[in-house]
Design a protein that fits this description.
23% of the residues lie in helices and 19% in strands. The chain contains 10 helices and 22 strands. It has helices at 2-13, 56-64, 78-87, 115-120, 193-207, 239-261, 301-304, 331-339, 354-358, 439-456, and strands at 31-37, 66-68, 71-72, 106-107, 125-131, 149-153, 176-179, 182-186, 213-218, 268-274, 308-311, 320-322, 326-327, 369-373, 377-383, 386-389, 393-396, 412-415, 420-423, 457-458, 463-464, 472-473. The strands form 6 sheets. It has a 10-stranded mixed sheet with strand order 8-7-6-5-9-1-10-11-2-12. Strands 14-15-16-19 form a 4-stranded antiparallel sheet, with helices on one face. The chain has a two-stranded parallel ribbon with strand order 3-13.
């Protein structure tokens, strides 16, 4: 009788029997890796059409993942672009414009939520190895904005005494190298930086293999001045610039190998992209955005359309090319959906593109994307297949003497007098202005632009937005 009672209890507990119910395991939270290069052009990856730079690791990543061919950086300049991708906001919404330097006394506001802060609340370990560029004073450092660890530089690698125009236009101090919140060195040269960033990234993966992590790898390269280690010097058919890209590709390979070695490859979302287009005034030390028009510092396609590759074997079928427009501001809400994290309490601009990545949806999540530059100047709008530009002043190297070997050439300034409209499906190089043939399209985009001007402003129209927020200010 006693044995019968015990067996009955065991059966009731589901501990005995062939048909015991299985407790459904919850998905293990995915690891997230964001690899973010600096001033890399749309064409500067083999799979994106480079004729003379070999990137086997990135090409393999694209073959096994997704190649996004209409992905846009948040703005065509360093700090603003980083603000956008990390917060899900248009940079001008949160008061981050241009490229912050050693003289700036503002940075990212403590009230803004970064991807790192969002994921830390979900138990993620977080690290950044590379360039920060959202404020160099203590209150703005990445360790104050969600990152457990940081190794790298506080702003661009050319903001140092060795700048070719030091004394002419600039008076930069020494370039500090940080470990968390401590300056551990003053950089005299930078040839080992990509290797050091890579080694620390691999070590972070090894140390955190048993818990979810967010690893942000914002390489200082290929922003000028170009530096490469001996192992890649002279290896490219594209000179020093190509050598630098090849070393970054090697770095991607090392990170992917670390994932595989630790059994993390299937459940890790890896994203590779760049902050803006190539710095064309540097000639042979600049990248290429071909077949796109112009480069960094412009709202033309070459300024903000970037190579983007995403791999996540567990959830995203690989070998696909996605041409649906999306922007860096959409990353944070996408990761929030994927990880079931809470969105920031303050208004953001991005929307999740997860269904586009899975193939469930082929339409953009945003009605339009807006292209700002300088201090809140709305230059253009992407609307479906259309790209419209409002009258503004922009820079070009067309018909100019290019720079060479680290010395920049001089830009020529161009004043766009009238609205211009381009059909990107049939004219990716933006050579044929079709504004006069499509007045209805122009009118529709102008309505969207006016709505955004009301919300975020437009200095070209002397409009201040009702939704903009202040950056953080230095507290002394």
């Amino acid at each position: 009788m006693y044995r019968f009672i015990v067996l009955a209890i065991l059966f009731g507990m589901g501990l005995v029997g062939e048909d015991k119910p299985q407790i459904e395991k919850q998905d293990t939270p995915p690891n997230i890796i964001l690899i973010f290069t600096d001033d890399q052009g749309y064409q500067d990856v083999g799979i994106f059409g480079s004729p003379n730079i070999k990137t086997p690791n990135l090409d393999q990543m694209a073959a096994e993942g997704l190649q996004l061919t209409s992905y846009y950086a948040a703005q065509a300049v360093c700090s603003a672009s980083r603000a956008g991708i990390l917060t899900g906001c248009y940079p001008n919404r949160i008061g981050i414009h241009n490229a912050l330097g050693p003289d700036n006394t503002h940075g990212i506001n403590a009230s803004e939520t970064t991807i790192a802060e969002m994921l830390k609340k979900k138990g993620y370990a977080t690290a950044i190895y590379g360039k920060w560029h959202l404020g160099h004073h203590e209150q703005f450092l990445p360790t104050r904005h969600g990152f457990d660890e940081w190794f790298g530089i506080p702003y661009s690698n050319d903001m140092w005494p060795n700048h070719p125009e030091q004394g002419k236009y600039f008076n930069f101090p020494d370039l500090p190298l940080y470990e968390n919140e401590t300056v551990i060195d003053t950089l005299e040269e930078q040839s080992q930086l990509t290797t050091q960033i890579t080694e620390r990234s691999v070590d972070f993966i090894n140390r955190n293999k048993d818990k979810p992590f967010f690893l942000y790898v914002p390489h200082p390269q290929p922003h000028v001045p170009l530096f490469v280690s001996e192992k890649f010097k002279g290896k490219s058919e594209r000179g020093l610039y190509g050598d630098v890209i090849m070393e970054i590709d090697w770095s991607v390979g090392q990170i992917m190998k670390a994932l595989k070695d630790n059994g993390l490859e299937e459940n890790t979302l890896v994203i590779f992209t760049s902050d803006n287009g190539p710095w064309l005034s540097y000639g042979n030390h600049a990248g290429s955005a071909l077949p796109l028009r112009e480069g960094k510092g412009t709202a033309w396609e070459g300024g903000q359309r970037e190579p983007c590759i995403i791999k996540y074997p567990k959830k995203l079928a690989g070998g696909r090319v996605i041409d649906v427009p999306m922007m860096a501001i959409d990353l944070l809400p996408t990761l929030a959906e994927l990880t079931q994290a809470s969105l920031p309490k303050q208004t953001i601009d991005g929307k999740s593109v997860w269904k586009i990545l899975t193939g469930e949806q082929n339409e953009p999540v945003q009605e339009a994307y807006f292209f700002y530059y300088r201090v809140n100047e709305m230059f253009g709008v992407r609307y479906g297949k259309w790209k419209l530009y409002f009258p503004h002043r922009y820079r070009t190297m067309e018909d100019q003497e290019p720079g060479k070997d680290g010395i920049p050439g001089e830009y020529r300034m161009v004043d766009m007098k009238e609205i211009e409209l381009y059909d990107l499906e049939n004219d990716i190089s933006e050579t044929n202005n079709v504004a006069t043939q499509n007045p209805d399209v122009v009118a529709e985009i102008e309505k969207l632009a006016n709505n955004m001007r009301y919300r975020l402003g437009d200095s070209l129209k002397d409009m201040k937005g009702v939704e903009t927020r202040e950056p953080g200010r230095l507290q002394r």
